[in-house]
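Practice record 12: protein with zinc ion.
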Amino acid sequence: MIRGLRCTSCETAYPLEPLYECNQCGSILKADYDYERIGIKWAESGVDTEDLLPLPAAERVSIGEGNTPLVKSDRLAKRLGLRHLYLKCEFANPSGAFKDRPVSMGVSMAVKFGYGRIIVASSGNGAAATSAFAARAGLEAVVLVPEPTPQEKVKQSLAYGARVVKVEGPYSNSFAVAKEIGEKYNMFNVTSTFINPYTVEGDKNVAFELHRQLKNVPDVIYVPIGAGPLLVGIFNGYEELKRLGVTGALPRMAGIQAEGCSPIARAYLEGRDQVQSDPSPRTIAGGICDGLHGYAKDGTYTLETILRSGGFANYVADEEIRAAQSWLAQDEGMFVEPSSAVSIAELVHSVKAGRVKPDSVVVAVLTGHGLKDMTQVQTEMNAPLIPNRAQALADLLGV
Ligand SMILES: [Zn+2]
């Protein structure tokens, strides 16, 4: 029951149209729903979160995204000193990352609006997701990635048949080129920062699923953040559930970054309400290596959401990320890319500092699969080669 779009700053209302910012003030746009009608319908026939999405399921381009597992952590939780740690396995989406959710919504709107071509700027996961969903929809996809994007993500995007182009410099350069060319040549821009107001609506489904899977609202949800649309989408989803009387509480949102690219965390830690961009970010967590150069307002918007939730932001060092990546693999059997591991790395600090209690209900969102970024797997990992004799293995194992 979407009504249209509304400016998050001056509240100007717009109809459902391909629009990337408020024409009046240039601020971020957000989907606007008829909550009164939804409330009446839900009171009569039960909760149906489909009413809080911009398109009905039958009109969405889908490859079976969403409905990802929520797994209760056992060994890793013990290691961290937590009793109720849940891992939301977004790496189980069809393209191997959470981006399938926002991109499904963006590509569906491109079809609705009659576009033949879509364009995206991505650090890799959005590139693969856009390529996959464009293929599914029969649309042409122009995919811009920064030069250091892992080969796995580039090849995956190429495999789906997309036009993949590397742009020199950091992610923000890809973002600027996609924005300009998309507007000039009528390609729908599904970049999942906050430029496309429909994509973030797909992220809300994480909240709706968590609500069904957990029954209760978790105390804290840890989300790796670049610009932060996943974190904002999840909190928007919970706010809507609360507004409609489905839940009484809201989770605190923890936005976690890497030390070498931490504009939002630094603003939080320094008590600033405006995020400043970082023109030359550098970290092994490529999926969240977004310096927000030219669109620091997106970071400010995410920071506002974190503060509104009573949550916090922080950053962790690359070495801590590597350790957390190993724990997830070796304690839980979950091989994730470095960006996904930042939440677990931060949880070590959170427990020590009392930001979470041992009996807090904590959800960590694991955003992308480890196979997507094999170059960051520790290089000393090597399998020994033995002669083709059983005894050679016995000797090696010392059995
Ligand atoms: Zn406005």
